[in-house]
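Take one record.
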Amino acid sequence: MEKITRLDISVFIGALGGFIGNILGGWDIALRVALTLMCTDFIVGFIVAFVFKSSSKTKNGKISSEALFKGLVKKGLMLVMILVGHQLDIVTNQEILRNGVCYYIIVMEVTSLIESWSISGLSYPKIFDKVLEVLSMKTEGK
């Protein structure tokens, strides 16, 4: 039996990342921002529950493995929405549905981050309100 090396693991992870990026429509800025915000929202939600014990996802506000699991499942379903949008773009020979889904996810995640910041007692720059307004208009196709 051969020994698995770091190179083997790197090649596997690179191939898996390339495959996932491909089925999600390519690694462009919309996907990168959506994924970054999804990860950031999950981490900030974890911190709010663990440190501040004021999560809106549980009755007592504390961290819960069930709430964490549900959060991960929701993030996974968001990726499925991107996948479906990309596949529908392929069928219709368009490039708008996937990007619309990405913008929709970006708006949802920024809104969730603002909520988490507010729960933790932190204020947020009001420019985020304008950014959300612009992104909402972009999502609606205006």
Summary: The helical segments are 6-23, 29-52, 65-92, 97-119, 127-139. The mean pLDDT is 89.
